[in-house]
Amino acid sequence: MKFRRSVVAAALVILLGCGVLWWSTDGLTAFTAETARRADVLRSPRRLPPVVLEDQDGRAFRLQDYQGQLLAVEFIYTRCPTLCRSLGMAFRQIRDRVPQQALGRDFALLSISFDPDRDDRTSLKAYGRAYGADGTRWRIARVRSAADLKPLLEAFGIIVIADGQGGFEHNAAIHLVGRDGRLAEISDLDEAVPFATSLAASL
Amino acid sequence: MTGHMLVQIPLLAAIGILACRLLPARWQGALLVAAGGAIPCVLLAVFASSYWMLPRALDAALTNPLAEAVKFTSLPVLVGLPLALAWKQFSAIGRGLVLTNYSSMLAVLGWLYIAAPMRVCNGYLVGQQVGVGWLMVELAVLIFAGWLATLFVGGAPVAVDKVDKLDQSQRASRT
How would you write the pLDDT of chain A (203 residues) with one tens digit per residue? Predict the structure, then answer.
């Protein structure tokens, strides 16, 4: 009797335990929050908050203004020594690989700084110049009011932590906002070329 | 990261162990019987601690208040308590199994954190990740060495009055 209860209890625990581990890793696929956020966005594209952004020339706009086009978004800060350079280069690669007539009409690029206090228009312009952003089809922007930063980062799933040396560490990726204005895809930084190829196919 | 993973989480489990010890013996016995014995308890503790080894779970505990609440309740109740209940039931072999199991899980996790080419937790820096990885490996080695040591050290010396009684009974059988 005691043995049977032991077996039943053990079986129950194993079943429940495996179930919880399966559910919490999305079927043993996503062990990290980063993988999970990417898979989640693919499954259900996310609405984005209507925050007001300001580009390197001081023009105000919203993400929603890009509806009808495909928009690639990345999050940077201009003082970034390494990661944001790769982000800038990735965007340049994407921009170069997309059919030129689609650029500006059907597809645009947007680099958003998550350090709006220190990244002013001059820094944004300098960053844009360094990577060949033309300021219209590829804009470098920041949030107008600091209060909007948190909801924006949360919607995209970007977590920024101060690295103790005046810089930041953050999860970096290339985000694709669909024509309906929802975040539809998050792609790895090292896969800019495949991203551009599949993008070109859907333009 | 070190504080979170290697201090807070083990402390929470330790709270569960302590809470179990503080319960009256009858309740402990009743809980053990309800759980079906020591093995389901250990299995529960292993699954629950595996969940909290996922980088996702740690990130969730940092950003989501519900996840943090779950952490504060599940670690004492689902890891500490069952382990404490089951510990007394286990012989040296059983205890050795549990300890070596945990030690190896810790070592593998630590190595993963050291060797991972990117940050596994969005909430922590790379340097912190490597540091925690090394600490985990060191802790795993310590636990293993500690357990090994208990194998070589003898048990408690036999109580003096027991020896006397043994002597008396031997004398009585001789006469």
Answer: 678 888 898 999 999 999 999 998 888 888 888 888 888 888 889 899 998 999 888 889 998 888 888 999 999 888 887 778 888 888 888 888 888 888 878 888 999 998 888 888 888 988 888 888 888 889 999 988 888 899 999 898 888 888 777 788 888 889 999 889 899 999 888 888 888 888 888 87
CB neighbours (10 Å) of residue A59? 12
β-pair type (A60-62, A174-177): unpaired
B36 touches chain A (CB under 8 A): yes
ipTM above 0.90, yes or no: no
Does B30 reach chain A within 8 Å, measured CB to CB?
A: no
Q: Please give the model's pTM, rounded to 2 decimal places.
A: 0.75
CATH for A47-201?
Answer: 3.40.30.10
Give the start-to-end residue ranges of the domains of chain B.
Answer: 2-174
Mutual angle of helices B92-115 and B126-152, in 10-degree steps: 160
Instruction: List CB contacts (< 8 A) between A159 and chain B.
Output: 59, 63, 122-123
Best probe of the B interface among A13, A14, A75, A158, by most B CBs < 10 A, is A13
Given a contact cutoff of 8 angstroms between Cβ atoms, the answer to whether B2 and B131 are in contact is yes
